[in-house]
Amino acid sequence: MPAGRPIASHAALALALSLGLGCGLASAQAQPFPNRPIRFIVPFPAGGVSDVAARVIGQKFTERWGQQVLVENRLGAGGTIGTALAAAARPDGYTLLMGSSTELALNPNLYAKLSYDTLRDFAPIALIGQAPLLAVVHPALPVKSLKDLQALARARPGELNFASTGNGSTLHVGAEMFLAAAGVTMTHVPQSSNAQLSVMTGQTQLMFSSLPGGIGFVRAGKLRALAVTGAQRFPTAPDIPTAIESGFPTVEVVIWVAAMAPAGTPGEIVDTLGEAVLSALRLPDVKKSFDNVGLELTPGDANHLGAYLKRELAKFGKVVKAAGIRLD
pTM above 0.90? Predict the structure, then answer.
């Protein structure tokens, strides 16, 4: 029997270690979320609206929870590369997407095949904000409203051109939305850069610009603003009417930003993240940061964002199909 005692001792030790390890794992799993760094994937370059949103919200996460937030800019293919990476991430709340209308609502209607599905592969966290487009023309063009532009395009069929930052861009789709509503045609002249310059020099006559990208030229007298494409006038440009006010009720398109998590992320974690985002958006310094990049805060919880995504996908789909725009 003496020889058996060490075996019993070893067994007891193994059991104790096993119980200790199990308790340790249970304790680690019981730690409140988050207990380690969070990563925000941004599918566009640093300095853009999505990037600013990730950094501003990320800083508030750090102040709230004491955890580092890493912003990872993963560029390429109109935002699809970074978005697909976020969709495939482990659904534990530690890898998030700072998404926008481009990759979540427009791209699914432009590409026949995407490696992600907005509604299937993501869990909405919160809508953050939006910015309308700004319809601008060359100052010498004899129009002062969208109705004037409609009349001129009808009088000069095939003579007017419009610029955008590229085929299938939000700016392109915004212009196509107006042309369809107005019942007129113009020639699309995509520009990889300097789209506003092509209007200022008279190469093109019209552009639906991002509001931050065009308002400075309007105030300098180099472009004339006709309308913004939001549902209401924009707070920093209250003198510019909306397209809806101007007689085109279907011309409503905005660039928006929203926080998303991979599908399958536990509901309690999504709720924790959503509450943290919405709390941050109530802070004056956060509002100021977004004002600086021309984004109006339009907070919405997960349920609001989920319904909004469905409406935006359908709206962009209708315009893209009517205009025959494809990117593959």
Answer: no
